[in-house]
């Protein structure tokens, strides 16, 4: 194997990310000398966001999380990660993705309207007799 090329110095992570996106690591690193390492305490970096959800969606998510005995935020992250991985695997075009995202009849796309509840065991509306 020929001698690896020297890795350039980078001013920022963005600059380094751009470099490795366009260059082959095998030209800069001798894998025959690689050593397996373990980072048992390494945690993925996270970023806090604010997300507006329909109340009914959040309520249903909390019910599911309660059934599974997990925090609802954790369940939301799992569901979101699963969907993102599926979309990345399927490799659909932006047009195909947009068509699915803009579903007017989505179960939680009621624009803030309350969900109709089951009439089983509920009281009739005021002023109406059964």
Terminal CA distance: 87 Å
Helix run count: 4
Q: State mean pLDDT (0 to 100 scale).
A: 82
Q: What's the gyration radius in Å? A: 25 Å
Largest sheet: none
- Uncertain residue ranges: 111-115
Number of strands: 0
Query: What's the overall geometry?
Result: elongated
Q: How helical, in percent, are the residues?
A: 25-40%
Order of helices and strands: HHHH
Beta percentage is: under 5%
Secondary-structure-derived class:
mainly alpha
Describe the structure in your own words.
- The protein is an all-alpha fold.
- It has a domain of about 45 residues.
- Helices cover about 40% and strands about 0% of the residues.
- It has 4 helices and no strands.
- Helix 2 crosses helix 3.
- It starts with 12 loop residues before the first helix and ends in a 29-residue tail after the last helix.
- The relative contact order is 0.07.
Write the layout of secondary structure elements.
Layout: H1 13-22, H2 55-68, H3 72-90, H4 94-101
Q: Could you provide a short overview of the structure?
A:
With 130 residues, this protein is mainly alpha-helical. It is built from four helices and no strands. It has a domain at 55-101.
Descriptive key words:
elongated; 130 residues; mainly alpha; 0% strand
């Amino acid at each position: 194997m020929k001698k690896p090329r020297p890795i350039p110095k980078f001013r920022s992570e963005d600059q380094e990310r751009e470099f490795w996106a366009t260059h082959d690591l095998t030209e800069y690193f001798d894998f025959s000398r690689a050593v397996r390492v373990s980072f048992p305490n390494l945690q993925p970096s996270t970023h806090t966001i604010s997300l507006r959800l329909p109340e009914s969606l959040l309520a249903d998510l909390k019910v599911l999380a309660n059934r599974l005995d997990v925090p609802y935020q954790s369940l939301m992250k799992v569901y979101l990660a699963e969907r993102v991985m599926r979309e990345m695997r399927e490799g659909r075009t932006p047009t195909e993705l947009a068509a699915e995202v803009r579903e007017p009849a989505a179960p939680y796309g009621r624009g803030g309207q309350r969900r109709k509840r089951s009439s089983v065991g509920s009281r009739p509306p005021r002023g109406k007799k059964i």
